[in-house]
Fold:
Amino acid sequence: DVLFCPAEVSSLPGLLFLVSGHLLYTRSGEQEQAKRMSPGDWCCEPFLWTQWAYRGQLVAETDARLVAVDAKRFRDILVSGGLVTVLEYAERFVHALNEKGISGLSDLGTSIDAQAALPDLYNATRGGGNSRRNSLVSLISGRRAQ
Structure:
């Protein structure tokens, strides 16, 4: 079964955690072998923090069980709870996406992505930023990417 295809915009965008089974992900235009997702892996995190269209194809290799985090509900909870630390992570996440360029974008999540955004999160300074995408922070605060 195909879960999503490149350039498709999800009608129910959100983060997906693989609980059981195995999935195969192939990034659009990539010649290398598909990446295998195993329980504990996740994908589609960009939907939580910015507007996103899938960059590859995800297919079920075996029967699989996924847990989905609805992006809109997630944002609503963050806004009502005032979780500044999470919003700082979101801003860094979108900045990292913009630094990768088109050829480096993927739907797969990795612990490296999270580690890159978290080490000194509490000491983060807010610069003017030249993000090309609008992060959740910019959407909430009214600041737009330049």
